[in-house]
Predict the structure.
Amino acid sequence: MSRSLVERTPCTIGIYIEADGMTIEQHAEGRRRLAEAGVSEAAMKLHSVFGEEGHLMVFDIWESQEAWEEFLTHLLPILLDLGVTLKEPPTIMPIVDLAM
């Protein structure tokens, strides 16, 4: 079994977001709007969306807190426009080990 271990730099972070009732359609529309606006996702190393329709959650890995915060300035207005609210602020944690 082969594994590729992605070495963690001190600033690599994981972001966990639990939205209040986010749908697949809202997620897809948000992604479309970000792309249409030319928002770079180069610093996002992993994007995952999971859960059941109407209760989607997100887990991302970003190369730095600064890159995440820059992306957030574009993401938040889109989420607000789509009516997506968060149950609580995103949970941000350092990545210790990431095997792919």
Summary: DSSP finds two helices and six strands in the chain.
